[in-house]
Amino acid sequence: MSGRADLSAIEERYGSRVRVSESFGETTADVEPGDWTGLLEAARDGGHVFLDWLTGVDEPPEGFAVVACVYDPDARSRLLLRTRVPREDPRLPTATGVFRGANWHERETFEMFGVVFEGHPNLVPLLLPDGFEGFPLRKDFVLASRVAKAWPGAKEPGESDHGSPSRRKTLPPGVPADWARDGGAEGRSETEA
């Protein structure tokens, strides 16, 4: 069941400041960052009392969408709430005062995308090891583990000791062609050195 019928209070409260759309049976309400916590409160007060999830979506070059899915257990309806923050300064007020369950979701979104949730009670790393640099779910993050550290044993067909011809070596998906190719020995493979 769609959350469309439950949006009258939100549309009345925000007027032209909220954009409501429906796609594939899901109703979405979009607002500016300044209306984010108010939108969450309005959805909660309208019966969507359960925060299912909250995450970020990298939308280059503009910035990040922050999306929350809330659920009304009585009406059995979901509602997607969304706002966008700029890439150069991704900040948003915390939702922990509205939904306590937003705590870990915001920590993960901060850690993976770099979105800062102002007023969060404990915005510290949740999943990544200490000292990790970067935001791994951003589209500009280079996933280059196989380039930086070779895997032991045969990696590609033909790279074993069976005497078969080897294929041209390719970089893993998402790794720029010139990554780690600065001319120094540390940037070259053993066959190039």
Automatic annotation (TrEMBL):
GO molecular-function terms, A-Z: NADH dehydrogenase (ubiquinone) activity
Region of interest: Disordered: 152-193
Protein name stated in the entry: NADH:ubiquinone oxidoreductase 30kDa subunit domain-containing protein
Lineage per the UniProt record: Bacteria, Bacillati, Actinomycetota, Actinomycetes, Streptosporangiales
Family: Belongs to the complex I 30 kDa subunit family.
Domain of life: Bacteria
Domain NADH:ubiquinone oxidoreductase 30kDa subunit positions: 30-146
Skewed-composition ranges (Basic and acidic residues): 179-193
PANTHER family: NADH DEHYDROGENASE [UBIQUINONE] IRON-SULFUR PROTEIN 3, MITOCHONDRIAL, NADH DEHYDROGENASE UBIQUINONE IRON-SULFUR PROTEIN 3
Pfam families, per the entry: Complex1_30kDa
Organism: Planomonospora parontospora
